[in-house]
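Progress narrative, work stream C.
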Amino acid sequence: MRLMFNRLPLLLIAASAAFGADLRLGIIGTDTSHVIAFSKVLNDPASPDHVAGARIVAAYKGGSPDIESSANRVEGYAKELSEKFNVELVPTIAGLCGKVDAILLESVDGRKHLPQVKEAAKCGKPMFIDKPLAGSLEDAREIDRVLKAASVKWFSTSSLRYGEVAVDMKFPDMTGVVVWGPGPTEEHHKLSLTWYGIHAVEMLYSLLGTGAEEVTMVSTPDSDEVTAKWKGGKIGTVRTIRPYSDFGGVVFRAKSVVPSGAKTKYSYVQMLREIVKFFQTGVVPVPNDVTLEMFAFMDAAERSKASGGTPTKLR
């Protein structure tokens, strides 16, 4: 009986999609610009980027008073969601769950994700968890454990996984990859790469997949450089640049070197297509073990940096 109960949300979602009804999505955390960008794509049929099949109908504000970029934005974005997109604001996660078919966990603070996941898991709805999945490797693994115990399907990704570098520069004869992107950090996050460097890490993993074994990280005030050995001999490098930079990459092939353009194109649209498809089908587009290895990669990088750049194995 428990198995049937846990499958019920996905069965109802599949039935709704079969009859052409929009899925009702709920937001947890209105302290990121993503909630406005996503609402424009999902809730506005007149938008040239409109993705059909789901609408954001409710939101729980959340917020982190000790992170300025959260505390200063949570109320403004909540107001815009309510007034411009007709999204209902609800005072609790439990109250949100009863109004929606699936959940977008958008809180900008990765530290908030584990307690919010624990609360949201009680309603059994499938969940997209925006980057960063968590602020530490331990929290990332606990999120996975909690959701698997509740039979809740989930995935997490950055929109850069669907950008030009990650999609167009994947070759079967790759021997190594260098990617780069912005690298601002946030003092409360245990793993410095999770705050913004995770975008570049997603690009690297989109190209090389899992299999990193040993990581070395060195940092200056202006940048971080992380180099890792992969099983089979490939080498992957991530460079993050402060305060900001464009995204880009270079792929080393057996007989050639392929650079990206001056500015890498990416958008939220393809990622939102994948999110809606996931909610409709229950098929996870980015396997959870890939996301968890990314956190083990960032954890090893942080330990390497703390030791002065010593090569460090993934936990």
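Work stream C, second folded protein:
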Amino acid sequence: MGFQPQHQDTPGHMSRMTPVPDCGEESYKGSGKLEGKAAVITGADSGIGRAVAIAFAREGADVLIAYLNEDEDAEETARWVREAGRKAVLVAGDLASPEHCREVIDTAVSEFGRVDVLVNNAAYQMTHETIEEISDEEWDYTFDVNIGAMFRLIKAALPHMQPGSSIIGSSSINSDSPSPTLAPYAATKAAIANLSASLAQLLGKRGIRVNSVAPGAVWTPLIPSTMPDKKVEHFGDNAALGRAGQPAELAPAYVLLASDDGSYMSGSRVAVTGGRPIL
């Protein structure tokens, strides 16, 4: 299928994409699976993060929307959360900063009193044809945002999580089948899957579950803002289903892992890849 060529400056804005991704705004129906829970979702302004925020709110959760600087997109996510009758809290800032990671959790505790679900979804990537193009600064920043923030957010959140709480990391098909042009990103996604599996074992005795979701090709602002036009045009064509996924198609996996329906799921990695296998 593919998409028309288009480019945005990073981090990208969902409202400027053609077509605008489907985050379940008109389709997701909740059934109370997260009633009364408090969730923190990073990268919740758009894409998969927005889809998860909408789904969580319609399942009954209040949501803290952590995002970088995409204010317009974040406000739109908050509007959908509030339309579902739930509380939406917006926190802007760069998760590469350890202090900001702690601020996100401190704000959640101040607003909600606790953290029941932590979704580590924010990510940074850039496309490079050679390793020489990747600066030391970009390498470090990619790791700080994608895996360093996950570590710091979890450490900050744990004192405020009770048995039955859930931690979810956004890994990727790139964790097993890395794109050579996304080397730093792919390495962090493998680290997310590995850290999630380690923490599932460390935190099991506390009754806290840790899992990850491995998306395949999903149409989000990362794509037009970090990939060349040719790759955008054919994005998702190599999936077994012959197309890219929409963020709305990822949200049910996160709901499962956050809810009591997944009460015996920990240390799992759920593949939502359009048919491309993960090992």
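The chain has a mean pLDDT of 95. No further action is required on this item.
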